[in-house]
Amino acid sequence: MNFSIVIPLYNESDNVIQLNNEIISSIGLIKSNHDFNFEIIYIDDGSTDSTYTTIMGLKNSIQTIIVKNYQNLSQSKSILNGIEASNYENIILMDGDLQNDSKDIIKMIDLYLKEKFPVVHGFRKFRKDPYLTKILPSKIANFIVRKFTNSKIKDHGCSLKIFKKDIIKSSNFFGDFHRLFAAQINKNIRIVEIEVNHRPRVKGFSNYGFERIFKILIDLIFINFVTNKRSYFYTLGIFGLSSFLLSALITIYIFYLKFFEDKSFIETPLPILVIFFALSGLIFFSIILVMENIKKFFQDQNTKNKDYEIINL
To answer: Which CATH number covers residue 144?
Structure first.
C-alpha cells in the first residue's frame, strides 16, 4: 500500500515545522506495524509569508514533494494540483493549520483497509472553533448540502480524508471542491465517516467565514447541472425543443384562425408568442453551445497549462 499525504498551505509558516514533525511521527507509528510507503506533498498556494522558504528547508527521510503555485489559486485548486503531482494510488488529505490531528491518520488507514478502500471521511464532532464565525456557518452549509444532494455526511467541511486517487478527475471538479468532495464524487462510491480530533487554531488566521455559504450555494447549483448524467445539455435541450414546439403549435393555430375563423394575425397576441418561443429555443440551444465550448476550454486548460511547479526535496 502506498499513500500520498496532500497538504495545501497558505501563509502557514508558523505551523509548518510542527505539522511536518507530527506527520513524520504518525508515519513512523504506521510503518512500525505495516510495510507501507508514504510521500508528503506540500502545496504552497502563493503564500505571502515565509511558508515556501520553510518547507523548502525541510530535511525529511520520507519522500517529500513541494508544489509551488505561481499565484494564489484557492485551497481546492491546490489540492487538485497536489493530487496531480502525487505518485501513489491512495490519497490522504489534511489541512495545514494544525487543527487536524495527524494521529487520526492511523485509525483512518485501519478503517480504509478494513472496509476495502471506500472514501474515509473525517467528522469533527467536537470542533474547537468560534461558534458564530466558524461553527454556525459550517452547520448551515452542511444542512444546505445535505438537502441539495441527499448526502448523509455530517461534516462536509472536514478536510481529513482518505480515498483512491483514481476516483479524481480534475476536469470534473470545480468551486469549493474540498468542501463538496462527497457531493461531487461518483454516487456509487461508498463513503465511511469517522470521528476525528479537532484542535483550536493557535497560530495563523482562518480565511473562511459566512461567505462560504454563498459559495456553496453557487457550487451546488452547478453540481446539479454538471454532475448529473442528463446534465445541463439535456435540461436546456428539453427547454429549447419545448419552446420550438410551442412556437410551431401557435403558428399552426394562427393559420387555423386565419383560414377557418377569418381572424387577422394582428387581432391576437399570438404572433408575438411565436417570436418569443422561437427566440427562446434559439437562446437555449445557444447557451448549450457556449457552455460546451467553455467546458472544453477548461478541460484543455487543465491538461495543457500547468499553474504550478514541482520540487522534489
So the answer is: 3.90.550.10
Distance CA 80, CA 165 (A): 11
User: Distances in Å between the alpha carbon of 311 and those of 58, 60, 67, 85, 86?
Assistant: 12, 14, 6, 10, 12
Which helix (H) or strand (E) element contains residue 213? helix 211-226
Positions of E strands within 94-240: 119-123, 161-164, 191-195
At residue 313, the 3 state secondary structure works out as coil
Q: How far apart are CA 107 and CA 120, in angstroms?
A: 10
Q: Is residue 309 part of a domain?
A: no
Task: Give the total number of structural domains in the chain.
Answer: 2
pLDDT, residue 228, reads: 52
Phi-psi region of 38 (alpha: psi -120 to 50; beta: other; left: phi over 0): beta
Amino acid at 202: V
Residues of the chain with pLDDT under 70: 169-179, 183, 186-187, 204-235, 292, 295-305
Pairwise CA distance, residues 308 & 313, whole Å: 16
Q: What is the DSSP string of 23-83?
A: HHHHHHHHHTTS--EEEEEEEE-S-SSSHHHHHHT---SSEEEEEEESS---HHHHHHHHH
Residues sharing a CB contact under 8 Å with residue 13, sequence separation 6 or more, in sequence order: 47, 49, 50, 51, 53, 54
**Per-residue pLDDT, 255:** 87
The range of the structural domain enclosing residue 79 comes to 2-228
pLDDT of residue 207: 61
User: 115 by DSSP, 3-state: which?
Assistant: coil
Return the C-alpha cell found at 287: 447557451
Q: For residue 25, give the nearest of 89, 101, 120 by alpha carbon.
A: 101
Query: What is the structure's pLDDT at 174?
Result: 54
